[in-house]
Each structure stands twice: as C-alpha cells, then as structure tokens.
Design a protein that fits this description.
This is Cytokinin riboside 5'-monophosphate phosphoribohydrolase. This protein has 8 helices and 6 strands; from the N terminus they run αβαβαβααβαβαβα. By secondary structure, the protein is mainly alpha-helical. Helix 2 links the parallel strand 1 and strand 2.
C-alpha cells in the first residue's frame, strides 16, 4: 500500500525490471511518458515497452513519429521505447535492448525450472505456445486442483489461439472427465488488460 501517486511511481520505478504499457487511458499514457522522460534524462536505463494490441496505440505512435519529424523529439530518443502487437514479440524486442526482462535463474533441469517457477511466481500466465507451454499450463492447473498451490492461472488467448483447446476442456467437462468446479481453476481472455482484470478477481 502506498500513500499517494508519487510514492506509487517511486516504488514502481525502484522495483521494476522493465516497464510495459498495456492499452489504457490518461493515467496509463501519463505513466508511459514519465518513464520515457526518466530514461531521456538518464534517471533509469530499464527497457520500456508498449503492447500495441489491435493497433490501440497506432495514432499515438504516429504522433510520436511526427514529433520526431518536426524536431520536437530527437531521432535517438524515438528508440527509448519499443512496441509490438503481441506479448511474445514485445518480450523479444525488450530483450534486444540489452536488459533481461525479469530475474534470470540458472537451473539444472526442467524439473528444477518448474519448481523455481512455482516457488517464485505470483501467478501463472500462458501465452500462445507449443507442447512445452501446454504441458506447463496443465501442470500448474493440476497442482492447483490437488491443492498444492492457490495462485491464479491465466491463459492469454490472442487471436483465438486457444479456442479449440478451450472447446476441448469444455467437452471434457461435459463428458465427466473434468469436474465443473475445476473448469474455473484457470481464466482466459483475448487481451492482457482483460486477463489481468480476471486474474485479480480469481
């Protein structure tokens, strides 16, 4: 808990490994511009990313580009932040800035990796992925089902990527292989903002 907005921003700047901006309103935009300005002034050198879901920030990005063309923003400062239309591409761009997103922990094997992930995570979010992603998602769901953890589990269903998987789970419920109450161990949403909202109330 913080006393005011200034303390909130100070705590955010102090404890963040990077700054990622989701689609939002005035407050979101103000905080984005503040961390960009801090970087411009040399107050921090942490990566800054803009998640441009469904082109939400297209007009803002065009505005910034015009400000560069008109000489109000230096061309070198245009690259203080990166943007991408989906989380995977954004993380890749943030990693290329020279800073690693989050904390890096070296582990001996996959079992230790999962144990570390379970121990240090506040929640679990699965992005679109392959067999490994699906296996890890099902493992944390199973661990929740067994009462081993009670952390929120979310599925980021970008562009309906997981629609058929969700249909499969619903069919498994209908056929009696999964209890109806267990269908709600995880939540899903098509965009990060909605997913975070669901995770906060789950």
């Amino acid at each position: 808990m913080v006393a005011n907005m200034h303390q909130r921003k100070t705590e955010m700047a102090l404890h963040s490994d990077c700054f990622i901006d989701l689609p939002g309103g005035y407050g979101t935009l103000e905080e984005l511009l503040e961390v960009i300005t801090w970087a411009q002034l040399g107050i921090h050198d942490k990566p800054v990313g803009l998640l441009n879901v469904d082109g939400y920030y297209n007009f803002f990005l065009t505005f910034i580009d015009k400000a560069v063309d008109d000489g109000f923003i230096k061309p070198s400062e245009r690259h203080i932040f990166v943007s991408a239309p989906n989380p995977k591409e954004l993380v890749q761009k943030l990693e290329k800035t020279g800073e690693t997103v989050g904390e890096v922990r070296m582990v001996a094997n996959m079992h230790q990796r999962k144990a570390e992930m379970a121990l240090h995570s506040d929640c679990f979010i699965a992005l679109p992925g392959g067999y490994g992603t699906l296996e890890e998602l099902l493992e944390v769901i199973t661990l929740a089902r067994l009462g081993i953890h009670d952390k929120p589990v979310g599925l980021l269903n970008v562009d309906g990527y997981y629609n058929f998987f969700l249909n499969f789970i619903d069919k498994a419920v209908d056929d009696g292989f999964i209890k109806p109450s267990e269908r709600h161990i995880f939540v899903s949403a098509p965009n990060p903002k909605e997913l975070v909202q669901k995770l906060e109330v789950s």
